[in-house]
Amino acid sequence: MEYSVRLAPHAIVQIQEAVSYISKVLNEPNTANSWADYLQKEISKLDSMPARFPLVENEKWAVKGIRKFPVKNFIVYYYIDEDSNSVWVTAVVYSGRDQLRALNDMPI
Questions:
Q1: Of the chain's two ends, which shows fewer C-beta atoms within 10 Å, N or C?
Q2: Which residue spans within 10-106 are E strands per DSSP?
Q3: Distance CA 102, CA 55 (A)
C-alpha cells in the first residue's frame, strides 16, 4: 500500500528555520540546499512501509502513534493515518536539542 506523505505546518516552519540557520548563520547556503533536498528525499520514502520506524519512547506520544527516524543530525517525527492512507510529518528537530521538549511543543 502506498501512503500520501504530508507535512504539518509546524514541521514546515521547523524545516524553514533549519535551512535559514544553515544558510545565514553558518553561512553555508549550498549545504542548506543540499540538506533540504536530502531531507525531502528521505521523508518521501515514508510513502512505503511507514511503520518500519519505531514509536517514540515517551508513552504520552507513543499512544498517539508518533514515530521517529533519523535524517543526518535531525529526527523526523510523524504518525500514520490509516483511515486516509496518509503519513503526517509533525516535527523535524535537530538531534542535539531536548527531544522531549520538542515533542511537547509539537501541536497534534
A1: N
A2: 67-71, 74-81, 86-94
A3: 16
Assign domain 4-105 to its CATH architecture.
2-Layer Sandwich (3.30)
Residue with cell 544553515: 22
Give dist(CA 28, CA 42) in Å, integer.
Answer: 21
C-alpha cell of residue 100: 522531549
**Are 12 and 25 in contact, with CB atoms under 8 Å apart?**
no
- Per the confidence metrics, is the pTM higher than 0.90? yes
pLDDT, tens digit only, all 108 positions of the chain? 799 999 999 999 999 999 999 999 999 999 999 999 999 999 999 999 999 999 999 899 999 999 999 999 999 999 999 999 999 999 999 998 888 888 888 877
